[in-house]
Amino acid sequence: MTEMVYGALPERGGEPILPKWWRTLDKWSMSCVLMLFVIGLLLGLAASPPLAARNGFDPFHYVTRQAVFGFAALIAMLLTSMMSTTMVRRLAVLGFLVAFVALALLPVLGTDFGKGAVRWYSLGFASVQPSEFLKPGFIVVAAWMLAANQQINGPPGTAWSFALCVAIVLMLALQPDFGQACLILFGWGVMYFVAGAPMILLVGMAALVVLGGTLAYSNSEHFARRIDGFLSPDVDPTTQLGYATNAIREGGLFGVGVGEGQVKWSLPDAHTDFIVAVAAEEYGLVLVLIIIALYASIVVRSLLRLMRERDPFIRLAGTGLACVFGVQAMINMGVAVRLLPAKGMTLPFVSYGGSSLIAGGIAVGMLLAFTRTRPQGEFGDLLRGYRQ
């Protein structure tokens, strides 16, 4: 439909899939993802041996698993990035339905692994966190609904997507998993804003979020404990935030040296939620700034490419995926430096975790598919067409 309206340029007939994929791919963004994965393995070598020793495994048990999960994630990313936008949407709808059902059944079949929040399915040899796979699926499905809402006599996609968003947020809050709930709500809000939402409505949504946070603080001991710890002027040095804060302070500009860090021996989540503390202590501010630059490059380049996209669905879905990817990284690093309350959220492609790595690979693969160069001409071609 978009091509009929705007007059797309013809594609190269008969071009093989791989050369076409490589020619149209955002190679810089893909290179940044690969660099993040390599950094994750490097930090895993430093952070995971103490945990492996405590659990009775060989020193590189978790690094090996991270490499396996990461390889699977990269394969998923490459295969997804080769798909057409129609195939990506079909994959997202199917994945969303499966993940939504899995999320709904968590209270019955899930486990908390002693962490106080029922977020996982235990498979014996591994665990699966449905919310990680739900995020990219929901973003694409919601973008499809919002784009359909813009069509003449189209369905009420905005209302449908918002109802779906609220249902997911409520299920996540009951686990409780307020971090993922905030990401889902943020992703929908960004897409709705790009789709042309009135500012007064967004302000009203922000007020509802504040009200929901107040109710959660009053009724959830888990939520209240994290907020109180964040607002407290004194940091208990024996808590995870205390250990992470001290590690970042000790690292300075260039770090204490490879393998010389001590925080990995004290933090139970040094290889996941607080991997940035390990990076800051052993490699210093320099590596942390490199990590930030890699995430920023992926997000900014993706948004710049999406600004030239004419198809509303592609523009909305790509924007949602890019923003959620960037904000998740920002939240993880913000928690480590005590700018945000603890969320239990991984750092994409850097932290250890099978579900987060593979789901992240699928999400970035979708983003790369949406940001591929398409034969749709430039906006100047459209304006010249109007003058003729």
From TrEMBL:
Any one Gene Ontology molecular-function term assigned to this protein's record: lipid-linked peptidoglycan transporter activity
Entry keyword set: Cell cycle, Cell division, Cell membrane, Cell shape, Cell wall biogenesis/degradation, Glycosyltransferase, Membrane, Peptidoglycan synthesis, Transferase, Transmembrane, Transmembrane helix
InterPro entries in UniProt: FtsW, FtsW/RodA
Catalytic reaction list: [GlcNAc-(1->4)-Mur2Ac(oyl-L-Ala-gamma-D-Glu-L-Lys-D-Ala-D-Ala)](n)-di-trans,octa-cis-undecaprenyl diphosphate + beta-D-GlcNAc-(1->4)-Mur2Ac(oyl-L-Ala-gamma-D-Glu-L-Lys-D-Ala-D-Ala)-di-trans,octa-cis-undecaprenyl diphosphate = [GlcNAc-(1->4)-Mur2Ac(oyl-L-Ala-gamma-D-Glu-L-Lys-D-Ala-D-Ala)](n+1)-di-trans,octa-cis-undecaprenyl diphosphate + di-trans,octa-cis-undecaprenyl diphosphate + H(+)
Transmembrane helix in keyword set: yes
Topology versus the membrane: Multi-pass membrane protein
Domain of life: Bacteria
Keyword Cell membrane: yes
Transmembrane stretches, start-end: 28-47, 67-85, 91-113, 158-174, 181-211, 283-304, 316-337, 349-370
Enzyme category, top tier: transferase
Entry's Gene Ontology cellular component terms: cell division site; plasma membrane
GO biological process: cell division; cell wall organization; peptidoglycan biosynthetic process; regulation of cell shape
Pfam families, per the entry: FTSW_RODA_SPOVE
Enzyme Commission number(s): 2.4.99.28
Main location (coarse class): membrane
Localization, UniProt: Cell membrane
Pathway(s) where this gene product acts: Cell wall biogenesis; peptidoglycan biosynthesis
Family: Belongs to the SEDS family. FtsW subfamily.
Name of the protein described by the UniProt record: Probable peptidoglycan glycosyltransferase FtsW
Organism: Sedimentitalea nanhaiensis
Organism phylogeny: Bacteria, Pseudomonadati, Pseudomonadota, Alphaproteobacteria, Rhodobacterales
